[in-house]
Amino acid sequence: MPSSTIWSSQPFRTLYRVGFWFINIPHLFYLALRNSIPPLRTVPQWGYKISMGVAILRALFRYIAVIRYQQPRQMVPGKTPDRFVLITPPDATLFRGALGAPAAATKPEPVGAVWYPAPVIAAAAGDPPPPRRRVIVYAAGGALVTGWDPDENSKNISALATDHFDKATHVLYMQYRLASREQPFPAAVQDFFTAYQYVLGLGVSPRDVVLMGDSAGANLVLALLRYLAAQGLQQPGGAVAFSPWVEVTAEAVQRYSRSAASRYDILDVPLLEWGIDAYRPHGKSLTQEEEGYISPLHHPFPLETRLYVDAGSLDGVHESISLFAKQMTDVAGNQVRFHTTENMPHD
């Protein structure tokens, strides 16, 4: 029985909810007062907004991890029916290697996605060619196990992306399958590949596509880039990875739990442990190829796509991200730029 079903059948879940917020709400009020005084902030370099945002996210992630809550995927039109699309997987022969049968633990499935500000429409036969479309395909973070409201999150992320990428015309916020024992790797990568192939099928040139993601979503960006390069498929014009989760191993989480950052960053140990347990397939020995897809640190690969990687200097996993970027830069022909945003936490 799935863990979420077990939790929902136990009265302890309700008791935990009440107790958790009974303790944490007063604590957050205390932090609100404490963080209003700059010298008393946990990280003096942070402003009030970041200090409280980190505190709230830490509490939220701890709560979600303990009750094992996963945001349901939107597979039907919701609040934005004019921008929602249900994407059918491409031809099965395109799913090869670690993403294809019989190696894959999961099979491709339809993918729900939301366009911003409006859908890209394929030109009909005989119509004049449409204006140039430059599309960002976005995968959000959440340790591969937590989801976000697709309408609200797609609006916020897409607005941010189009504001800072002045040549971007559209953003496709794809909803990959959240990891579980039943849907481990490579389900989420299969979904990202499905979304990317869908955009190309609309007539958008690969050079006009940017793959973008944050944290666990950035892990999927790297996995898809690896797959496209390994299979000789069309690669996008660019890729952006914000605070990518590059070391998805139990050993890395143990090191993080002993670090100073684990006391102030948004990354929460129970959430990371859940993500690793759910995403890494059980009952089989992983090949080096599969390890590279799941945990890209120490598994650099060649690619044609220009890759931009960003991490905050106070990110609890900044060191591993920096090392991964160096390993990728050292591969002949790779175009990789690594940037550190000073005094920023994870993501």
SSE blueprint:
Blueprint: H1 3-8, H2 12-34, H3 48-67, E1 84-87, E2 111-116, E3 135-139, H4 150-164, E4 170-175, H5 187-201, E5 209-214, H6 216-230, E6 238-242, H7 250-257, H8 269-279, H9 288-294, E7 306-312, H10 318-329, E8 336-341
Parallel strand pairs: 3-4, 3-5, 5-6, 6-7, 7-8
Antiparallel strand pairs: 1-2, 2-4
Protein name: Alpha/beta-hydrolase
Domain Alpha/beta hydrolase fold-3: 137-347
Organism: Apiospora saccharicola
Can you offer a commentary on this structure?
Pfam families: Abhydrolase_3. InterPro entries: AB_hydrolase_3 (IPR013094), AB_hydrolase_fold (IPR029058), GDXG_lipolytic_enzyme (IPR050300). Keywords: Hydrolase. It is a single chain. The protein is α/β, with parallel strands linked by helices and 347 residues long. It is built from ten helices and eight strands. It has helices at 3-8, 12-34, 48-67, 150-164, 187-201, 216-230, 250-257, 269-279, 288-294, 318-329; strands spanning 84-87, 111-116, 135-139, 170-175, 209-214, 238-242, 306-312, 336-341. The protein has an eight-stranded mixed β-sheet with strand order 1-2-4-3-5-6-7-8. The longest helix has 23 residues, at 12-34. It is globular and about 65 Å long. It starts with a helix and ends in a 6-residue tail after the last strand.
